[in-house]
Amino acid sequence: MRTYIIKRLLISVVILFFTGLIIYGLMRSLPTSYIESMAMTKSMAPGSKSYDEWMEQLTAMYHMDVGILPGYIQWIGEVFRGNFGDSWKWSVPVLEKFNDSVWISFTMGLIAFVIEMLIAIPLGVLAATKQYSKTDYTISVAALAGISLPTFFFASLLKLLFSVKLGWFDLYGLVGRDYEQLSQTGKILDQAKHLVLPIVTLVVVSMGSLMRYTRTNMLEVLNSDYIRTARAKGLSERRVIFHHAFRNTLIPIVTIVGGSLPGLFAGALITETLFAIPGIGYVSYQSMVSGDIPFSMFYLVFMAVLTLLGNLLSDILYAVVDPRVRVA
After folding, report:
1. How far apart are CA 174 and CA 171, in angstroms?
2. Which pTM value belongs to this model?
3. Helix or strand or coil: residue 39?
């Protein structure tokens, strides 16, 4: 297994190099140029250099005066020195802006993911064990409704009901008006209160697909020969379902756990925008539409790293939950 992991990591480095090159090429091809806006702003300051001089200095500073491949090689050299540059959009170091926003999205995503797993998997198993019953139909309809609900519609519905009509939550933002006057515990509770509706939105619109996936896999396992053999031996239905069937149902679900790693850090663009949550999804979108190459490059390459690690994690978890899977 150790040799397999090392081999996969080395392959991942090669994949990451070419993935980063593609991302860098796309970033350089954006129709907007934030450098031009920066040069225009700086040239208008009293006693400043001309626009052309600022353009020349800024393009050289950010390696925009060379081709895509040489510029990418120079960018990698800066990365190895721990220098990801300053964000053109936010006027702060890339890592500082990333660190300020990513943990908000991670907190939302992790809580929503845990709640989703705790609700969707048991309901999917319940629907499979009661196939074609009223329970199965009710869970299936709820799952399809969750899959079909647009995020912006459901989020707007929650805000209309719980913020406008009932007044239980604020419409926008991460903190309330009296946030600075609160104690440390009060500040935590205030932020938690503002995250309730966004988390509910993420859970409802995403758990439907997991419920359907669990139900489908559970039905496939329940129709297997060894399940019929276990029932023929006189084992109780509870033991058949939870000891034999459910453990094997978890094997394909492991891929979702590994694949969810990038999603925890990716942010929820639509949800964060609707609720004015300054998470990484909203920040990265604003950076991309503004032509902020330093921040966009770091974010997209970071997501590529997480995707490769997520795939590796899925393969390792496969071997953990299924003893039949071994690397020769």
Report:
1. 10
2. 0.81
3. helix
